[in-house]
Specification:
14% strand, alpha/beta, 15 strands, 370 residues, 11-stranded parallel β-sheet, Leucine-rich repeat, LRR (right-handed beta-alpha superhelix), 14% helix
């Protein structure tokens, strides 16, 4: 049996954190350990507490990153007081069920491994103490439903996988502050993301997103929104309501050239022209005097967003670009719908809009467009 080596006071060259000097940290990082050797080291601790004067329950952190581990020994469960377990940069294809016995674990970091969908323990959601989970840089092809059971989760990192969608019940994670899903295969974001009331950072970069839900505006505490390297052609106008937003990254998106070029306007039909005259001139009518489909049609008129225009539209609308100046240098394109091409030649922002934009100019500090 190999002799036990206590790495708890060794230096760690990783930029993720320096654990040297922490006597309660069992640091095996960069030790070139395989699973068999790690098991022997565990036996040296658990089998001869007197020799080392430290029993397994003494340790609160275990750092195993940058080794050659393919399996984590079940003896890890004997370290009952572990709060932080870092398994990053190994060859793990699954997380062991023994981790579920660590009832005090608040941080589980397993990034840059080979973990597949079946490699996430089915009962992981039972670990109610978990505050942070990091499975970035693995082989996940779906969002692990187990994460949704972690009621106290605050930080979730699952970037650099192959996740195609976010489940609609993502709103269950009411305490979530950071959601990192950059570098996946997302094509859309569910409206339920707006239910994450405490979210402060949302990272969706390096995906295939073409639009965002308007419910993004419900994230009142959001400070960072990273959207670079997507397929966004527009942003929801409601994004201006994000008063706490300090960083917005939009580079490598076809936001300006493409969606300005593709602006469309279909001439109104005779039906729409008639409907516009009735609505804009307030011509009185009784719904019972008209065929049901005409009464319904007249009821669905949309008011032109230009406050200087009293026009309405039904189906034929002008897609108009409003460039909102957030911080004096970068102009963010937002899409608006107008009733007529003439409106696009007139200012479409009211004084209240201008005040709101100016307020956001002051608050937003960093916008990356290129």
């Amino acid at each position: 049996m190999a002799s036990f080596v206590d790495y708890s006071n060794s230096s760690d060259s990783s930029s993720d954190g320096d654990y040297s000097g922490n006597p309660r940290c069992l640091n095996f990082s960069y030790a070139m350990l395989d699973s068999a050797t790690l098991s022997q080291n565990f036996e040296a601790i658990t089998g001869d507490c007197g020799k080392h004067k430290k029993n397994p329950e003494y340790y609160e952190s275990m750092i195993l990153r940058h080794n050659r581990l393919s399996v984590i020994p079940d003896a890890v469960a004997l370290f009952a007081n572990l709060k932080l377990v870092d398994l990053s940069a190994n060859n793990l294809t699954f997380l062991p069920e023994s981790l579920l016995l660590l009832e005090n674990m608040t941080s589980l970091i397993a990034k840059n491994n080979l973990i597949s969908d079946d490699g996430i323990p089915k009962n992981l959601g039972h670990n109610k103490a978990l505050r942070e989970v990091n499975v970035s840089g693995n082989c996940l092809t779906r969002f692990p439903e187990q994460f949704l059971e972690l009621d106290n989760l605050k930080f979730l990192y699952a970037g650099g996988n192959q996740i195609p969608e976010i489940p609609n019940n993502i709103g269950q994670l009411q305490k979530l502050r950071v959601l990192y899903l950059g570098g996946n295969c997302l094509t859309e974001i569910p409206a339920e993301v707006g239910q994450l009331k405490r979210l402060q950072a949302l990272v969706l970069s390096d995906n295939y997103l073409e639009s965002l839900p308007s419910t993004i505006a419900q994230l009142k505490q959001l400070k960072t929104l990273l959207l670079h390297n997507n397929r966004l052609t527009t942003l929801p106008p409601q994004i201006i309501a994000l008063r706490e937003l300090m960083e917005l990254s939009l580079r490598e998106n076809p936001l300006v050239v493409r969606f300005v070029r593709e602006l469309t306007y279909n001439p109104p039909t005779l039906l729409e022209l008639s409907g516009r005259v009735i609505k804009s001139r307030n011509i009185p009518f009784n719904a019972w005097e008209l065929p049901h489909h005409l009464a319904t049609y007249l009821a669905c008129a949309h008011q032109c967003v230009n406050p200087k225009c009293q026009g309405v539209y039904f189906d034929s609308r002008v897609e108009h670009v409003k460039f909102v100046d957030f911080c004096g240098k970068y102009r963010i394109p937002l899409l608006q719908y107008l009733c007529s091409p003439n409106c696009s030649n007139q200012p479409v922002s009211s004084s209240s809009d201008t005040d709101s934009d100016s307020d956001n100019c002051y608050r937003l500090r960093k916008v990356l467009l290129g």
